[in-house]
Amino acid sequence: MSRPEGLATGAPELSAVLPCHEEAANLERVVTALSAAAEDCGVRSMEVLLVSTVAARDGTPEVARALARQDARLRVIDQGRTPAGYGGAVRLGLAAARAPWVLLLDADGQLDAAELPRLWPLRGPRTAVIGVRSPRRDSWARRLAGSVYRRGARWALGGLPAVQDPDCAFKLLPRAPIEPERLRSTSGAVNLELLANLHARGFTWREVPVTHHPRRAGSARFELALGPFTGLPRPAAAFELLRDVAALSVRRLVGP
After folding, report:
1. Which residues contact 168 (CB under 8 A, 6 or more apart)?
2. Which end of the chain, N or C, is less surrounded by CB atoms within 10 Å?
3. Which pTM value belongs to this model?
């Protein structure tokens, strides 16, 4: 994969953080689409941070390193053999980001990087942009689990403005107010934590519908693969998520 001529190197204008679990079959396609989309947005320079773990069983770290050897804008961030979950991947990526704007995008290909131009023009000095999967293309079990989770999280974080799809892994965030070292969630609750932190600092966000595709390859950290019940959370992952939401609720009530 070669670097598009329209994107310069140097100080990045956009940092794209891509958490990668077992996405060897998806990674190159996502990175290629992202490069073209950034060029379409007029982004002058971009860095892509591939946050992976050597515990992946499908060769994702090797694919990520091979892509980085071909394109100087790519950096591989290694979570190690015992990574702190999805939240840990997001935290590592944000800590390494250097640009004033950060794109959080999962590397599973379910969200189309080519739709970055929908988000980019809507950003503002104190305004983030977050995607809304429309419609959801997950299994019924995943949609059910997500609905229960969102309702519970909305109750636990009563001071947070209503968000249609807080867990959509397509977010354009201002880098300045984010303090990665203060993020505590190791699960997908890191999405709520990021929005809660932005809200506490007086930032707002706009929501934009984005296309959601069924997963074509790879495997998710969070869900079981049990025939018709594929998409239900793994028990340990569900406990981790509930623990993180409870911690966020407590911090909202008593402070950091």
Report:
1. 111, 130, 131, 132, 133, 191, 210
2. C
3. 0.83
